[in-house]
Amino acid sequence: MISFTSAQLSAWLAAFIFPLARILSLIASTPIFGNKEVPARLKVGLAFILTVVIAPTISIPDGLEPASAQGLFVLVQQIAAGLMMGFSIRLVFAAIEMAGDIAGMQMGLGFANFYDPQNSTFQPVVAQFLGIIASLAFLALNLHLYMLAALADSFQAFPISTAQPSATAFRTLAEWGGSIFAFALQFSLPLIGALLITNLALGILTRSAPQLNIFAVGFPITLAVGFAALMMVMPFLSPLLDHFSQIALETSSRIMSQLGSH
């Protein structure tokens, strides 16, 4: 008859529950995987499979019980680590959607809003279009595999332990969050420049021909120029997304290293 002690069962549970908490929180907070349209069973199943693969390579401190005070502290640490990694990657999509929001407002499509199931908000049609294209490019470039590789490496940079994490990582995450405005401006700057020139030309035309109905003529011209500029910018979306995603993965790895530094 095979028998197990309570210490052995507690060690096996700790070796599984702590990695599962980090992996599940990452999946729940990342784009695409964390979409509310993705069934919860699929998210939990994917987290379970990844935990089964990654857990044997992780070392857990001896005597760490999940139901103890230290165990709950470590569990909160793992959830926070997964959320920080997922948030750092989601900021890339937030920057692209912000660029679409800015471009849509300049094109005159600020009133054309659609429901975004990923963020449970209403977004301009241009922002939602760029978000969908960015999601497809994210999968086509295999960036989700790089994300899973960074997740596996995070257990080496920030191992599961009872040590208190460093507060420097939270500052790094805040600084990375402030960079989405720069990224959004980089992508939307060609559209803003083209629409600014168009609006200046329409202003000069209105001054030279006051009898011209600028509201009847200006909106179609602005819309056409905006779509033309967007069509010329689209080929640069994939390289830009790849570049931003690599920076996001490097930032998440640096955050994990800073969490593990004492």
Shape: elongated
Q: Structural class from helices and strands? A: mainly alpha
Query: Radius of gyration over alpha carbons?
Result: 24 Å
Quantity of strands, as a count:
2
Number of helices: 9
Strand content: under 5%
The first-to-last residue Cα distance is: 46 Å
Helix content: over 70%
Give a quick account of the main beta sheet: strands, pairing sense, barrel closure.
2 strands, antiparallel
> Which sequence of strands runs across the widest sheet?
1-2
Low-confidence stretches: none
How many structural domains are formed by the residues?
1
Instruction: Spell out the helices and strands N to C.
Output: HHHEEHHHHHH
Short characterization:
Helix content is 74%, strand content 3%. It has 262 residues and is mainly alpha-helical. The chain has one domain (6-260).
Describe this structure in words.
74% of the residues lie in helices and 3% in strands. The protein has 262 residues and is mainly alpha-helical. A two-stranded antiparallel ribbon has the order 1-2. The chain is elongated and about 90 Å long.
Helix-strand layout with pairing:
Blueprint: H1 6-29, H2 40-54, H3 69-107, E1 113-116, E2 121-124, H4 125-140, H5 143-157, H6 168-178, H7 180-208, H8 214-233, H9 237-260
